[in-house]
UniProtKB/TrEMBL annotation:
Coiled coil (UniProt feature): none
Localisation per UniProt entry: Membrane
Protein name: Anoctamin
GO molecular function list: chloride channel activity
Amino acid sequence: MIWATGFLIFWRRRQAEIAYQWNTLDMEPIEEIRSTFKGQLHRSPVTGKLEVYYPNWKRLLFRLLVTIPMIGINIMLVSFVILLIIRFQSWIDRQLKIGRLPHLMSLTEFLPKILLALVTTIFSDIYKRIARWLTNQENYREQRVHD
């Protein structure tokens, strides 16, 4: 047990020494291109080979014209629906206090809370789908950046 622990400690130290000597200490592993990455064939200035290329300005333009407005619309829509549900809850509370709604109908008190839970779940699912679609449309080259 002691030998195995010591071996691992010395191995990590030796690995760090070799990485420092070979100047590979801060290197990141090479990632494969995502299978859904789309673009035009373009000659690489580094390797001289044809590679799939997607300009950054197209991604930035999509973010500015589609992604950011879509997020803003979603935030306003969710805020509006939550505000309506809160107003509905306060209306029910006033009606119960006045006596227009019988207290036997305790389900009426919980209806806005149930509605809020349902709306939150539904909007969460819808937003996940929209976020996936927007991320796919931004067309990232590596999976790490896409995630």
